[in-house]
Input
Amino acid sequence: MFFPLAASHLSAAASLRHHRGLSALLILMLIIVLTACKAPAEPMAKVPAVEVGVVTLQTESQTLSTELPGRTRAFMIAEIRPQISGIVQQRLFTEGAVVKAGQPLYQIDPAAYEVVVASAAATLAKTRATSKTAEVNAARNAALVKIDAISRQLYDESLALVQQTTADVAVAQAALDNARINLAYTRIVAPIAGRTSLSTVTPGALVTANQVGVLTTLSQLDPVYVDVTQSSTELLKLKSDLAQGRFERVGQGDAGIRIKLEDGRAYPHPGRLQFSGVSVDPGTGAVTLRAVVPNPDGLLMPGMYVRAQLDTGVTSQALLVPQQAVTRDTTGRASVLMVDANSKVERRSVSLDAAVGNRWMVTAGLAVGDRVIVDGLQRIRPGDLVTTEDVVIKLVAGTGPTASPAVSSSAR
Output
C-alpha cells in the first residue's frame, strides 16, 4: 500500500531536476550574451596605400610630323637608242659602272658613213668650183654690157647663174654636215652622267635608227627623287588645323624630310620637299609629294620602298601622355588612370590625336598638372588610395620606352 506514494515522490523529484537544468542553461547563455555585448569591438585591419609611378603633365613645344610610304626614283634617266643603223663593233663601258656625260658607250661600224662624208665633201667642192666660175663670168659680163658688147639678157642670165650656183653650194654644205652628223652617231656617247644598266646588245648585233628597244639605260642617282603619297583626308585635316591656329607652319621655304629604309634604319642624309601634287588620284584618293634626297653613297636605288617623315607643323601648347598609360575598352575609347587631389585613383576618358614618339598628343580629357599613372597599373583600381612617385619616361633607341624614378613623394 506504500508503493504508489514512493512513485509519486520520484516523479516530482525528476521534474524538479529538469527545471533546474533548464534554468541553469538559460542563465549561462544570458551571461555569455551579456559578456559578448560588453566586450570592445576589434578594429578592422587598415589596407595600406599602394605606391604608383606618375607623370605630371606639362605643355611643351612640339614639332609635328607625319610618316608616309614612298618609292625612290632616279633624278634623271636616259634610255640609250641608236640614231643610225649599222653593226655594233664595240661596247665601250662596263655594265653597272658610273660614266660621265660624253663618255663613249658603243661604236657602230663607221665605214659606210665615212664614204658618204667623202662623197658629200666632193660634191661640195664641185659646186663651189661651179659657183666660182659663174661669179667670174658675171663680173666679165658686167663690164661688157656697159660698152654694149653683149646683150642685157645675157648679162641677166649670168647673174641668175651666180645665184643658182651659190644655192647649190649651200645644199652641198648641208649634205656634208648631215653626213658628218651621221658619222658622229656611229659613236654613241652618254648624254648624262649616271650609272649604266645591263647592255641588251653585244658586238656584231645589227641596230636600227630610233628602234624601240634600248641598248642600255643611264640613271643619275645623286640626288634621287622620293615620291610619297598622302591621303586627301589627312591633307584637309592638316590645312584645317593650320587655319584654326592649332599648329604653326614649319618654316617659309621647302619642308624638310627624313627617310627610313626598308630595314627600319634611318637614312643619314635629310632631303627637302620639292613638289606637292595639285590633283587627287581618283583610284587611291591620295596626293603625290616629291622630295629630293642626297645620295652621295649610292645607298638609295630606284624602286626602293622607304618611309618618309615629313614635318607638318609646330605647336607650343602640346599636352603629351605616355602611351603605356593609355588603355582602350572594347569600343576603342581611350582612358587613363590618374591620381586626384585626395590621392585616390580616378579613371579619366581622353581624346587622342597623333602619336609623337612613345607618347600620345591629348586633345581633351586632361589638363596641365594632372598626375597620370604610368607604373603599378596592375595593382590598383579606381577608388584605391595610393602614394605617388614621379617618374621620367625615356625613349631608348631600339628598345622602346622605359621609366626611371625622378623624385619620390608621399600621397598628396
User: Anything to note?
Assistant: Confidence is low (pLDDT under 50) at residues 1-10, 396-412. Residues 86 and 207 are 6 Å apart (CA to CA). The longest strand covers residues 59-80.
